[in-house]
Specification:
Shape: globular
Order of helices and strands: EEEEEEHEEEEHE
Radius of gyration: 19 Å
Helix content: under 10%
Protein name: MORN repeat-containing protein 5
Pfam family, one: MORN
Subcellular location: Cell projection, Cilium, Flagellum
InterPro entries: MORN, Morn5
Strand content: 35-45%
Largest sheet: 6 strands, antiparallel
Number of strands: 11
Main location: other
């Protein structure tokens, strides 16, 4: 694990990760829950660097049932998802706190919105530099390299820093 940048804090059975544990990934994501035979198994939660979380029941490393909660407390519901649909385009903070007065726009769910570095895009989980094709999180830590499809989507869809 030290070669991958991960860290495991928990019990071992026959040399395998097993029991209650914490598993820290190099991306800053943390799993807290049950492990069996070296895999997520049972009740466990993934905590993401942006403040969101995924609470799930895991079987042999796969989530079989779970709930995703965004950093602002909004829970994703696959069956009854009405947030930002065709009928109601309000942000979650507008649903909770009300709309702004006429003439004052809210352009993101975060109010005021993050300041985007010059020449970059805000792609939702960090800032994207189209020159280097690197996405860094909001604390300037490397997240990933954008492939061609993600690059095109960001250029067409996301807020610009200029």
């Amino acid at each position: 694990m030290e070669y991958m940048g991960s860290q495991y804090i928990g019990e071992y059975v026959d040399g395998r990760m097993e029991g209650e544990a914490e598993y820290l990934l190099p991306t800053g994501t943390k799993y807290v829950g049950e492990m069996k035979d070296g895999m997520f198994h049972g009740q466990g939660t993934l905590y993401f660097p942006n403040g969101s979380r995924y609470d799930a029941i895991w079987e042999k490393g796969l989530a079989v049932k779970g709930t995703y909660t965004f950093s602002d407390g909004l829970q994703y519901d696959a069956e009854h998802w009405h947030y930002c649909d065709g009928y109601d385009r309000r942000f979650y903070t507008e649903i909770c706190n009300g709309l702004k007065p006429a003439g004052i726009s809210q352009v993101t769910n975060m109010d005021p919105p993050r300041k985007i570095p010059e020449g970059c895009y805000d792609c939702g989980d960090g800032f994207y530099d189209p020159v280097t094709r690197i996405i860094k999180d909001y604390r300037n830590r490397f997240l990933r390299n954008a492939d061609d499809d993600e690059h095109e989507w960001i250029i067409k869809t996301c807020r610009k820093g200029w």
